[in-house]
Structures are given as C-alpha cells and as structure tokens.
Task: inverse folding
C-alpha cells in the first residue's frame, strides 16, 4: 500500500443494491436528461447509467485527491501526447465491482447493458500502442495505489476516423465529442497562458543570475483543463487524466468583424482551436511542422505550469520539487518540457542555471519507445527559434554544459561530441528532442529487454558512455482488467472456475492455469469460449462489411499501426503465395484460414496507404475466386480502435507479430492476443523475446533473422534480388503483385513497392519470407491437432501474468519515481 493511502479519508459509499441503482437511473433520466422511461432512447439510458456510476466514482475521486494532499506524499505526472482510453463506462463499472448489480438494475428497467454500452464513443485521444500503453498505465497507477495525474491534449477530432473507399484509406474527422462527454469536468481555475514567438530581453537586475531572461511572446493563448477520473481496480484509488484545450485570449476582433472582415475577426480563435483539433497533423510541410511543435509545447507548458503551481501551493519551496513530483516523459513528444521547466525555474523562480539543471534532471524521467530516426523527433533550428526563442537559448546553454563535460571530463572526440549534441549539424541544423530528453532526465528507460540493449548500442551509445547508469529497462505491460476480464468475461469465468480468484488481484497467479493444458475437459471448455468469440466477431464483420467468414476457420490476425517495419506487406505477400499454392494443388488438405488486417496509416505515409490498398485488392480477388472458397479469405477491417480490438483479440487464433527484428521497441498487442489464448507467430523482436521466455519456446512460433543478423546484413550488404529469385513462391507472388494481377485497373500500381524489395529490402521482407512461409505451414499442421493447439494456447494464457501493467508500474514506482 502506498504511503499516502493510510491518510485517505473513507468516502461515504453509495448503495449497490440493484433496486437502488435502478431508482437512481430513473432519477437521472428524469432530472438530468429530461425524459421519462417511456420516451427514453438507448442513448438516454446510456447517459443516465453513466451519471449514476459517475457519482460513485466521484466519491472515491475526491477522497483520493484529498488523502494525497493530506499525506503530503510524492505524486507522479505522466506526460503523453496520446491516451487511447477507449470506452469508459464498462471499465468504471467493472473496476468498482458493480457489473452484476448494474446489469440487474438495467434489466429490471427493460434495458440491456450490452446494447447501450456499444453506443458510447471511443475517445479519439490516441492512435496506436503508445496511446494505449499510456491508458493502461493510468489505470494501473490507480490500481496499485500511486497518486498520479496524466497530462495530454483534449483532441476534438483525434487522429481520424478511417473509412475504406475502393480499397483506399479515407480520413474523416472523429466526432467523439459531438454530443458531449459525461466523464469530463472543466476546471476553469486551472488555466494558464501559453506564449509563442516574440522577443527575449535581459531580466531585471533582481539577483536572479546571469542566465535569467524576460520572454515577451508575440502570440498568447489560454490552456484550460478538463479532468477525467481514472478508476483503479476495486475502486481503491481514482486518479486524474487532465487534458488541455486551447482558447484565444481575444476570441473575436470586434473592430474587424464590424468592418466586414468576418474571417479575419476570428483569426485568433481559429489559431487556438487548431492546436487541439487533430492528433499528429501531417508534418510533411512547414505549416504542419509548426502546428505539431506548437501542440507539443502547448501541452508541455500547461502541464509544467500546473505541476509547479500545485507544488508551490502545497509545499512552498520550489527546490523540493524532485521530492514531491516525478514527471515521466512518454517518448519525445513532451521533451520540450526539459527546456520549459528550466525557463520556469530560472526566469520565474530566480534560480541560477546549475541549480535549476540539478532540479530538472532529478525531476524528469524519459521513456524511449523507438529506435526509428523519424520518431526521435527533431526540429529545424529556424522553426524552433521562431516559435520558442527563450527555449532555444536554454537548449544552447544546456548543450554547452553537456558538451564541455563530455570533452573535458570524459575525453570525447569530435565524432562522439557530434553524436550526443542537442544540435544536429548534418545538413539543416536541427534540435534533437531525444537527446534533450535524455540529457534532462535522471532515468532513461527502454520498454523491452532487447530494445533497452539496442538503445545502449545505437541511438544513445554516446550518452550511455557518458552516463552508464542512466539507461534501464521497464518492459511494457497491459491492464488485465480491460484486456481479459472485461473484453473476455467468458474466459475469465473459466479461469476462475479452474484456479480460483487470486489472479484477479495478482495476474502472476495465472501460471497455475498451466497444469490444465493437459486436461482434456478443460481444453474443450477453452475451445468453446474461443469459438463463441469467433462467432461474435464473424457476426460483427458480416454486419459491418457484408463479409461472411467461417468461425471454424483459423483466424490469423494482424492489427496494428500500418508501417513498413511492422511488415503487413510480408503477411500479404504470403497470402498471395498461399493463394497460388491452393489453386495449384487443390488435392492437398488445406487448413481453412481467414487473414484479418486492421490499422491506420499516417495520412502522409504513401507506402503505408498503398499497403492498405494492396490488402484490399488482394482480398477482392481471393474472396471472389471459387477455387479457394472456404479455404482462404482476406479482409481489412476499417477504423481499428480500442473497441474493435476488444472484439478481434479474443477471437484470434494466431497473432501476427512479425516486425523486422530490432525495430519494434516492445509491442503490447502481442501480450493482449496471448492473454486471450492466441498463439504468436513472430520474430525475436521487442517483447516477443521475453514472451518466449515466459510461455516457453515450444509454445510460440519464432521465425526469421535476429536483430544482430539484420544489423549485420545491413552493414555488409545483402542481395535481395538473389534471395527473391532463389525463392519460387516469393518470386511468383511478387511477379503477380508487381505485374498487376491484383490491380487490373492500374497494372503499375504496385510496381515501385515491389521494386523496393528487389533494390534494397531495408525491412528484410524478402530475407525473412521463406522462414515465415515455412512457419505458417507448420502452423497448418499444428492446427490439425486441435488438442495440441489448445494446450499451447492455454500455456500462453498461463504465461502472460508477468506482462501486467501493474508489474510495470510497480517497477517504475520503486526504481525510478521513488513512490513505493
């Protein structure tokens, strides 16, 4: 138990009797929604139900907040540009332990809780694994009793809603806030001014030190907080997700409006609203880059101002900030926070540079999620200086201190100095945000054992030499509440019947399930749960896409952000090769297989969008060919999000985790699939390595080059053309794709995509194809022995307890934040 928990005041808990709950629902429906039961529609019942459960959340929320203040303990602040929280009603009801009671209460009113919960929109606050991890962490922070705030942006439209038109991705606004959000609370008192541009003058002679400056921004906007409660398991603690929205200081220029310039009069409003409109605006042009940098500084500055204001209010002395606040930077997006805290400490609190730097480094921790250069953000010097002139000065000052230390105390030569510098001098000079985050943090962690070691050897090798004790590993995890108990209650019930309830509070108790892998009766029950989930998904896909699939087929699923390193292309090419084999050898006993894809491509990422089109083109041909009917189907499921994942993961038989080795930091989809009884086909990349250790090498399907082998092939050069020409299945599949078999309307559509594999094959698609295809045929054979398959699937569930985000958060809390 956290030190602060002893001081938590016990809230006067509201009743849990179904009849009392039903009465409250009717009361909210009448006086908050303005309808009686006879006139209420499904969305009215949803709103009334949320209000009833929300009241019970608020009781615990207030008690949690007051108890932390009274205890005077340390608080964690998690800064992330994404929080992919999904629907919240079921999460809150389940974590409060009221699912059965609320179901009975609604049933007594003639309402099906499973129907109304589907009406709750997914919050459009994230895109993929980074945002979902942040959401899992927020839930686990509350579950393990760590006082915490999450900080992010309240996006109006988020990433985008994905539709598929003629096989192409179409991006549409995600209107999740169209009818309001009953979970959030506006905090007008938590409003802060955020500045951009302008000039920097010498500070007044007040003894604040040589580095103090007075920044006079040209553009100013107001950041206002909206708070959402995050309920921990069993309702022990409720923490806060604080999201910022932007408002202009002058919403309308009346003189301009009255003069007839109606558009110009709203210029400031439009500029402010743009900051919180879209997640990851396309940055292939300068306007997009500027907007994205504005977003990152906007939420970082508002969050830092809020943290410092709270600390001074409750503890007085700014110098004790590291003792009371642990700020974690989730990837490089909030890295500008390092310079912003320095500005606050030096310019506003009159500390000298060295003292401010010591406080800053003691306060921040940085989580790195990628080794991809494009994801380790950097900004052109001219853009950074134009928008944040004071911060540019501080970056130069930090860099000077860093490089002098490296040169004089550690003997770094010019090449080593260049590698760690905060300024990239190669070509256009740029500010390296990953280096800034590393330099300004006392702890830098990777998110899987392999990723952490690669950080030391590649992107942060120079920093590791300079600070050999700073890099550490915190392998990612997932919350078992959402990703087992809530999305798969049938499997949860089966596990409870087998091993009892202890795993509900300690998922590592799942290992006790392993002994049931050889129990034929249990395997049959396990298979029945899986089949029921596959039937539910089949019905959903028929309703949404008009796609008919056989629930008895092997469901082979790859759902994740579309990126070349994640190698959806490898999967599609293998589907084409399999298609050729089925047609060429109809006499063989082929395993019926459904290949399911899902995920979004960044709007400006041409090849990723082309891969989506290819998946749909291949699906159109295969699904309409009578020669393979019942043996192979392919589908790209549009608008992949948390709610869809909650349907697809429990239904999957095979989980595709096939990224190029050394490029996936961790992955968390791999954990969610395995926890729900899917077998993994994957490379030794990210957390797959540790999953193999926990579930047993015999229970996971590993193929392909290792990270070391990939690095060696790239360094020494490999000949993909020779590899392709030496593989009959691969060359035939690529010839069909590149030659227009699947794109008769545009036979050159995939010509360049295929040519890239022949020319350089950076992501080792050709290099790994034969190994991948061979492993898939092993999987066909295994599928024929359903008892063995189910035994392996059960062992996967049993081995996934360690991958709980509760474990991850406890490691952060004790080893980085010092709060447990």
Result:
């Amino acid at each position: 138990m956290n030190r602060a928990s002893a001081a938590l005041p016990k809230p006067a808990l509201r009743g849990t009797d179904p009849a009392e709950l039903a009465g409250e629902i009717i009361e909210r429906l009448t006086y908050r929604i303005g309808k009686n039961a006879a006139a209420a529609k499904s969305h009215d019942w949803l709103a009334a139900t949320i209000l009833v459960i929300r009241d019970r959340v608020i009781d615990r929320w207030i008690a949690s907040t007051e108890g932390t203040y009274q205890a005077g303990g340390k608080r964690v602040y998690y800064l992330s540009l994404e929080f992919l929280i999904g629907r919240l009603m079921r999460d809150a009801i389940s974590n409060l332990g009221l699912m059965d009671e609320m179901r009975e209460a609604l049933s007594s009113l003639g309402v099906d809780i499973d129907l109304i919960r589907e009406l709750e929109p997914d919050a459009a606050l994230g895109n993929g694994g980074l945002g979902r991890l942040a959401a899992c962490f927020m839930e686990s922070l509350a579950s393990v009793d760590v006082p915490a705030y999450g900080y992010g942006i309240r996006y109006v439209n988020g990433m985008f809603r994905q539709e598929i038109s003629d096989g192409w991705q179409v991006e549409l606004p995600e209107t999740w806030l169209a009818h309001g959000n009953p979970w959030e609370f506006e905090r007008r008192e938590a409003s802060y001014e955020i500045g951009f541009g302008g000039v920097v003058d010498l500070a007044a002679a007040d003894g604040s030190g040589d580095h103090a400056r007075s920044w006079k921004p040209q553009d100013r906007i107001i950041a206002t907080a909206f708070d959402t409660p995050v309920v921990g398991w069993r309702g022990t603690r409720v923490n806060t997700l604080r999201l910022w929205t932007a408002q202009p200081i002058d919403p309308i220029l009346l003189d301009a409006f009255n003069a007839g310039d109606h558009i110009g009069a709203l210029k400031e409003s439009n500029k402010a609203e743009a900051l919180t409109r879209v997640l990851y605006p396309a940055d292939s042009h300068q306007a997009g880059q500027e907007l994205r940098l504005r977003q990152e500084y906007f939420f970082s500055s508002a969050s830092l101002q809020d943290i410092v204001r709270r600390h001074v209010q409750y503890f007085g002395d700014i110098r004790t900030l590291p003792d009371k606040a642990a700020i974690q930077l989730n990837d490089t997006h909030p890295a500008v926070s390092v310079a912003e805290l320095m500005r606050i400490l030096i310019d506003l609190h009159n500390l000298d540079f060295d003292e401010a730097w010591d406080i800053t480094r003691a306060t921040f921790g940085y989580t790195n999620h990628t080794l991809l250069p494009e994801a380790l953000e950097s900004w052109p010097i001219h853009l950074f200086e134009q928008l944040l002139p004071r911060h540019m000065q501080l970056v130069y000052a930090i860099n000077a201190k860093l490089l002098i230390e490296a040169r004089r105390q550690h003997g770094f030569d010019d090449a080593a100095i260049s590698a760690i510098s905060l300024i990239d001098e190669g070509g256009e000079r740029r500010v390296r945000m990953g280096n800034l985050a590393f330099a300004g943090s006392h702890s830098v962690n990777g998110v899987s054992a392999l990723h952490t070691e690669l950080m030391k050897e590649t992107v942060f090798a120079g920093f590791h030499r300079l600070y050999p004790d700073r890099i550490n590993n915190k392998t990612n995890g997932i919350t078992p509440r959402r990703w087992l108990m809530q999305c798969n209650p049938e499997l949860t019930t089966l596990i409870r019947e087998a091993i009892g309830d202890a795993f509900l509070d300690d998922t590592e108790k799942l290992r006790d399930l392993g002994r049931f892998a050889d129990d034929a009766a249990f395997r049959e029950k396990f298979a029945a749960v899986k089949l029921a989930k596959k039937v539910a998904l089949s019905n959903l896909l028929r309703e949404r896409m008009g796609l008919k699939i056989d629930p008895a087929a092997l469901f082979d699923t790859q759902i994740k952000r579309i990126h070349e390193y994640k190698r959806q292309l490898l999967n599609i090419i293998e589907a084409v090769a399999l298609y050729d084999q089925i047609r060429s050898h109809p006499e063989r006993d082929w395993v019926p297989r459904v290949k399911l894809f899902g995920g979004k491509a960044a709007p400006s990422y041409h090849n990723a969008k082309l891969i989506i089109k290819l998946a749909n083109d291949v699906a159109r041909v295969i699904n309409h060919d009578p020669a393979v009917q019942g043996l192979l189907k392919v589908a790209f499921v549009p608008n992949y999000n948390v709610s869809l994942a909650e349907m697809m993961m429990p239904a999957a038989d095979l989980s595709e985790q096939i990224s190029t080795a050394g490029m996936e930091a961790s992955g968390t989809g791999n954990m969610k699939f395995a926890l729900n009884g899917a077998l993994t086909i994957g490379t030794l990349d990210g957390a797959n390595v540790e999953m193999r250790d926990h579930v047993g090498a015999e229970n996971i399907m590993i193929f392909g080059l290792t990270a070391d082998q990939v690095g060696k092939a790239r360094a020494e050069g490999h000949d993909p053309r020779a590899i392709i020409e030496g593989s009959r299945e691969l060359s035939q599949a690529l010839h069909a794709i590149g030659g227009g078999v699947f794109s008769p309307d545009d036979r050159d559509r995939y010509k360049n995509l295929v040519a890239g594999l022949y020319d350089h094959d950076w992501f080792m698609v050709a290099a790994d194809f034969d190994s991948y295809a061979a492993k898939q045929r092993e999987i066909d054979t295994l599928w024929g022995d359903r008892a063995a398959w189910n035994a392996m699937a059960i062992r996967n569930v049993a081995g996934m307890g360690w991958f709980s985000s509760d474990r991850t958060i406890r490691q952060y809390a004790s080893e980085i934040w010092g709060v447990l």
In short: The two ends are 8 Å apart (CA to CA).
